[in-house]
Amino acid sequence: MKTSKIIVTLLIVLLSSVTAISVMAATAQDVVTYTGKGTITFNHKAHGEKLGCAACHDGDKQEKIAIENKKQGHAKCLACHKQEKKKGNSAAPTKCNQCHKK
Fold it and tell me: pLDDT tens digit string along 27-39?
């Protein structure tokens, strides 16, 4: 009887976690735009599906990443794009005009 309660509790916790993740993914913006010295617009949904949230977002809160300057943006995004390019991902942009659209 005690084992059954533990199994049911674990299943409820697992189902709750899966549901929460699904809701977060469904409510995430499909397209995100950063403005500044050259606007950057990217498909957030595609990034998330391909790389997973933890590739860019830290911790449990999946909030928009605050990028306030070129150094922060390049540290967060360009560094990853260069790593992906080395792995053979030709879709990862590494040239200025591939991300910074006028």
Answer: 456 888 877 767 8
